[in-house]
Amino acid sequence: MTNFNPTILAFCCNWCSYAGADLAGVSRLQMPPNVHVIRVMCSASVKPEYVLKAISQGVDGVLVLGCHIGDCHYMTGNHRTAKRMPLVQKVLKEVGIDERRLRLDWVSASEGEKFQNVVIEFVDEVTKLGPNPMRGVKF
Amino acid sequence: MLVKLAFEERGADHLLIMREEHGNVAPAMISKGESADGVRLDIPYQLVTILENIYPWLSKGKIAIITRRCDEKALAELVKRKYVDEKRIVKIGLACSEEQIKKCRCNDPVPSNVAVGEPHEGMKDDELALALSKMSHEDRFNFWVDQYKKCNKCFGCTLNCPVCFCDDDCVLEDRTFVAEPNVPPGLSFHMIRSFHMIDKCIECGECERACPAEIPLLTMRKLLAKDMKEVLGFSPGDEMTVSPLNTSLEGEQLEDECDEC
């Protein structure tokens, strides 16, 4: 797939990752434009249902970004995310969707560069995986 | 015999069983002094589902219930969330027949105390699950899409599930989560249900028995149970009152779980 441009959804937590994304933008770091950022109050408020719904509607990849473990604004939010997301990946895997389409990572407010790297890597990976198989399925 | 065991020896006031009437078998509750004609023990049904529904209306007395191993696990899931008081339940262990074990591909069929039936050994593996786990992502995806295309969204799998607790606000009925309002409902319906069941499914197979489209739902549950064990080291039905579940943190009490899901 040479001309494949993946659509990627990034859930960024308000306190760290969204600020990190903002910093990346303000510092004019170059990033692929495939990522659509959605601001959520905490990575734990990303219901697994949202991720599953997005993927079943044809989104090619979902990024869930939160504060580093121990830095959560709500004390235990990202611990919960860290526990849930691997299970969501398993659900995807068993249905036959590559689990690499969902990625959980930690980006703090000062890590604009890390945000850039995560986005570049993820877009690269999803591009290699090709389009979401759900796109071709008509129910 | 069953009546004597439940009411006299175990001191129960009610007995939940499957009973045949006019050629149909349905769940029934027998109170003390009533006759127990037409009791059928060979029909598999998760009586825990019925128990869950009638429990709020039974403020007094002990309830005896026929428990296969899977019922026992389902009860453990209910008890740990404090939906049911364990002291009010009398378990009458029923060991499944070989034929039933084969149908359920069950690997853990013997209840902790066997009152009725001969214990048989469980099966090691589900063939379809094994075949699926060896497939490539693409083949597996095609397999499940073909299966799920048969779904007509009857909600049989949720209604008959003994461990589906959220009565009124099921996310599967909500447009916010299941985007496709049409029939068949698309993959999000099944993926969300899979995710919700992952930490409580006790592999009873009721969803598969209830499914009019004969989707191998139990196979999916078995695959996910294996993953769950791998990721969190926990099997649903383990009698733990502090949670290793996906909605709560290590060592947290299992009380308001449903508010989060």
Explain what this protein looks like in three dimensions.
The complex is a heterodimer of chains A (139) and B (261). Chain A is an alpha/beta fold. Chain A has one domain (8-131): Rossmann fold (3-Layer(aba) Sandwich). Helices cover 40% and strands 17% of the residues of chain A. In chain A, helix 1 crosses helix 4. In chain A, 53% of the residues are buried. Chain B is of the alpha/beta class and 261 residues long. Chain B folds into 2 domains: 2-104, no CATH class; 127-260, no CATH class. Chain B is 36% helix and 11% strand. Chain B has 11 helices and 6 strands. A 4-stranded mixed β-sheet of chain B has the order 2-1-3-4, sandwiched between helices. In chain B, strand 1 and strand 2 form a beta hairpin. Chain B is globular and about 60 Å long. Chain B starts with a helix and ends with a helix.
Q: How are the SSEs placed, and which strands pair?
A:
The complex is a heterodimer of chains A (139) and B (261).
Chain A (H helix, E strand, L loop, with lengths): L7 E6 L3 H10 L8 E6 L7 H9 L4 E6 L10 H19 L6 E5 L5 H18 L10
Parallel strand pairs in A: 1-2, 1-3, 3-4
Helix pairs in contact in A: 1-4
Chain B lengths: L1 H8 L4 E8 L2 E8 L15 H8 L8 E5 L1 H12 L8 E5 L4 H7 L22 H8 L2 H12 L7 H4 L27 H11 L8 H5 L6 H16 L9 E2 L8 E2 L3 H4 L1
Parallel strand pairs in B: 1-3, 3-4
Antiparallel strand pairs in B: 1-2, 5-6
Annotation keywords:
heterodimer, A: 139 residues, alpha/beta, Rossmann fold, four-stranded parallel β-sheet, globular, B: 261 residues, four-stranded mixed β-sheet, two-stranded antiparallel ribbon, 11 helices
